[in-house]
Amino acid sequence: MRKLFLPLAMLIMASGMLPAQNKSAGINLSIWKGVSTQPLDSLQTTYFNIGIQSSMNRMNGLGINVLGSVIGRNMNGMQVSGLANMVSGSMRGIQLSGISNINGNNMIGLSATGLTNIAGNQMKGGLLSGLSNITGNNSAGLMASGIMNISGDKAKGVHLAGVANVTGSTFNGLMAAGLLNVASEHMNGVQISGLGNIVVSRMNGVQIGLANFSTKARGLQIGLVNYYKDEMKGFQLGLVNANPDTRVQMMIFGGNATKLNVGARFKNKLFYTIVGAGTHYLDFSDKFSAAVFYRGGIWLPLWKDLTISGDLGYQHIETFKNKDYGIPARLYGLQARLNLEYQITKKFGVFASGGYGGSRYYNKNVTYDKGVIAEAGIVLF
Questions:
Q1: How many domains is the chain built from?
Q2: Which domain holds residue 305?
Q3: Is 312:272 a contact under the CB 8 Å cutoff?
Q4: Residue-by-residue DSSP string for 205-263
């Protein structure tokens, strides 16, 4: 690097600082602002730039700098800097830097940096960064970052982030993040996250995450907890599917499978889900054993306060110290039930269930136990 810039410095000083009317054939060899072969004024267009730190009016071509370059108007071509690139106007082309790329107006092309990309107005193309990408207005294309992508207004394309994607207005396309996706108005497409997906207004498409929220939804929500506030046209697939009309009810029951059980039922207009836990999957005479369960099904009214329902269930079973006596340490169970329920008062009801189920080993394709299920209990509304 020293061998490169020593002759450069000598050339600049020997030039005696060329006057403003000499355009230097569009070549800017620069050490610092004001120390270059090309003066900085509104008449200058740069076609080739190499230096340590450069300031230019307009560039149509290639610029390479050790630290950074600042362009007062537009850039069409390629900027490469060790630290940062800045364009006050519009950029069309490619920007590469170690820390940041900043474009005050529109950006069309590719901007890649180690930390942060900022496009003050519209972006069409790709933003790649180790930390964050920010667009102030509309964006179309790919935004990929290690931490966060933020688009202030409408966005379409593919947004990939290690932590979160946030769009201030409507998003069309794919949002995928390690923790959170947020569309402040509408979302048309797919949201995938490790924690949550939020659409403040209307969602048309698919949400996949631990928790999914939308005011109005048309499509599919897949997660542990799914919630819509006003309207849903589609399906919710999750442990808990809820909306403002969802009734949360406590269930206490016993039977010949897991002997004593308590669960919470999330009951909607047609579908319901139940999550809960029970004790003594094995007999009371054995040492302690327990299970957690999830059930999902549909219910229908039969007559007045009498309803019928059917569901499928999954159990995870722990036998604790019973494993010391040749019983598997843990099992899983698959079950099917048909239920009759009668609501006695506004706050209290009773039910009886019959079905069939079996438990199996996790580590081999062998059935441990199977048989008829008989249960009965109460519901607290």
A1: 1
A2: 247-380
A3: no
A4: EEEESSEEEEEEEEEEEEEEEEEEEEEEEEEEEEEEEE-TTPEEEEEEEEESSSSEEEE
The residues with which 144 forms a beta bridge, in sequence order, are: 128, 160
Residue 321 lies in a domain: yes
- Domain harbouring 320, CATH code: 2.40.160.20
With residue 380 as reference, give the H or E element that holds it.
strand 367-380
**23-72 pLDDT per residue, tens:** 567 899 989 877 888 888 778 899 999 999 999 999 999 999 999 999 99
Q: Please state, in angstroms and as integers, the Cα–Cα distance from residue 73 to each residue in 18, 45, 55, 70, following that order.
A: 21, 10, 11, 9
* Residue 334 clears pLDDT 90, i.e. is over it: yes
Q: Based on C-alpha coordinates, what's the Rg of the chain?
A: 32
Q: Which two tokens stand for residue 37?
A: 């072969």
- Per residue in 192-242, pLDDT (tens digit) is 999 999 999 999 999 999 999 999 999 999 999 999 999 999 988 888 999
Rounded to two decimals, the pTM is 0.80
Q: How far is CA 213 from the centre of its chain?
A: 12
* Residues 23 and 2: beta-carbon distance below 8 Å: no
